[in-house]
Design brief:
- By secondary structure, the chain is an alpha+beta fold.
- The chain is about 50% helix and about 15% strand.
- It has a five-stranded mixed beta sheet with strand order 5-7-8-10-9. A three-stranded antiparallel beta sheet has the order 1-2-3.
- It is rod-shaped, with a radius of gyration of 44 Å.
- The two termini are about 10 Å apart.
Length: about 425
């Protein structure tokens, strides 16, 4: 088991799906706003042109009626004072048969000079123009209110599809980095599919390297087992002395290394059979401070191996054990050393990785034995200094028919497949 790390799907406001949806809605809103401004401006200009044409038409009709009947019709006026100053000042420059228009203060003026002191004019209110413009804006707002949810839904669907494929690739990568075996299986020809294929190829390469490393470790351990046994026997026949004691210590250290390698090879093979029986955790950890005891499903011999390796690792590399605590199904071992390296905290134990003496196989064995027991190993460097390794064991499940529930003398279980990553200290 590797050191636990936080993960999972990102929060909704940080997810790719949300960003794509927001981008699509923003693009749609900008497009609708731009089109609305253009349409509103053009419709206003067209309405004013129609109003100008109507004013000129009524002006011509009123002048024609005036010439024939000498009566004022179509709201025609001959009073120059009624005409706005800007329009009145522009009329002397025009021909007498040429009309001019002027738009101001919500009214469209059309005027023609009839004589030096007479100006025929017509003024039309632009209320219909404003009403039509308001109605057009309302219709555009209704259309935008109907279109934006559809574009948001479309963006969400597109983003969800892309996000789902990326999450599948990210989940597979997280499983691989955490010691499992996974495949992305994302189809297509786009960048996401290329990323997924790259993750699968990386997983295959890591798996091949791991299997070669495991096979090499197992072969070395088996090949050294007989010569080392001979060295142990031969060292016992040497006469007492300082050189003999040194040789015996080195031979014992070599034998311990070979035994660790053989144990790692057995754990790597994934064929270890284990009988899990319920036990109180406290009595299985001599010398532990028991905060709260709990019944766990374990093999006592394997718990002894886990505790022994953690304590030995703390004594050898961590300046001694500063805490050995049982809290429910959780065993915590703390030391006073410099802490675990960042690569071990990030990827879990790395085989033959050691910051001091020893083979660096201690944490590898701890993780392998925990994996066989179905336990979880968590490694951290507390703020106060040193290193902390916690092992949380499985507890009996009282529900009938559920895995892990003890029955009779015990429950036989096969361990999960070995992790597709490098083990360590």
């Amino acid at each position: 088991m590797s050191a636990s790390r936080s993960g999972g799907a990102p929060r909704w406001r940080h997810s790719l799906r949300t960003r794509i949806t927001v981008a699509v809605v923003a693009a749609s809103l900008a497009t609708l706003l731009g089109v609305g401004i253009v349409v509103d401006h053009q419709s206003a200009a067209d309405a004013r042109d129609r109003l100008r044409t109507q004013a000129l038409t009524e002006l011509d009709a009123g002048i024609a009626v005036l010439e024939v009947t000498s009566t004022l019709r179509y709201d025609l006026s001959l009073d120059p004072a009624r005409v706005p100053r800007q329009l009145r000042e522009s009329l002397p420059e025009l021909d007498e048969d040429r009309a001019s228009t002027y738009y101001a203060d919500g009214r469209m003026w059309a005027a023609r000079r009839l004589s030096a002191d007479r100006i025929a004019s017509v003024a039309l209110d632009d209320a219909p123009v404003r009403t039509a413009r308001t109605s057009l804006r309302e219709r555009m707002l209704v259309a935008a209110a109907a279109v934006l949810p559809l574009t948001a839904l479309l963006g969400m669907l597109v983003g969800a599809g892309l996000s789902r494929r990326l999450r599948r690739a990210a989940t597979a990568a997280a499983v691989i980095s955490g010691g499992g075996a996974a495949r992305c299986t994302v189809g297509g020809r786009d960048e996401v599919a290329a990323l997924s294929r790259a993750v699968d190829e990386m997983a295959d390469a890591l798996d091949r390297r791991l299997r070669v490393e495991q096979a090499f470790s197992a072969d070395v351990a088996h090949e050294l087992r007989t010569p080392v046994a001979g060295l142990v026997s031969a060292s016992e026949l040497l006469p007492p002395g300082e050189a003999t004691d040194l040789l015996r210590a080195l031979v014992a250290r070599l034998r311990h290394l070979v035994e660790d390698l053989l144990e790692v090879a057995r754990l790597d093979s994934g064929t270890e059979e284990v009988t899990l029986t319920p036990h109180l955790l406290g009595p299985l950890v001599p010398g532990a401070d028991i905060v709260r005891d709990a019944e766990v499903l374990v093999d006592p011999r394997r718990v002894e191996r886990i505790v022994g390796n953690l304590v030995a690792n703390a004594e050898r590399h961590g300046g001694g054990v500063t805490g050995l605590v049982v809290d429910g199904p959780r065993l915590v071992v703390r030391d006073a050393g410099p802490g675990l390296p960042d690569d071990v905290l990030g990827a879990g134990a790395i085989r033959f990785h050691s910051t001091g003496q020893g083979s660096g196989l201690g944490l590898t064995i701890v993780q392998g034995q925990a994996r066989v027991l179905g336990a979880t190993v968590t490694m951290a460097n507390p703020p106060g200094g040193g290193a902390e390794v916690a092992v949380e064991f499985r507890t009996p499940d009282p529900s009938p028919g559920r895995p892990g529930r003890p029955s009779g003398a015990g429950t036989s279980a096969s361990p999960p497949s070995p992790p597709a990553r490098r083990p360590g200290p």
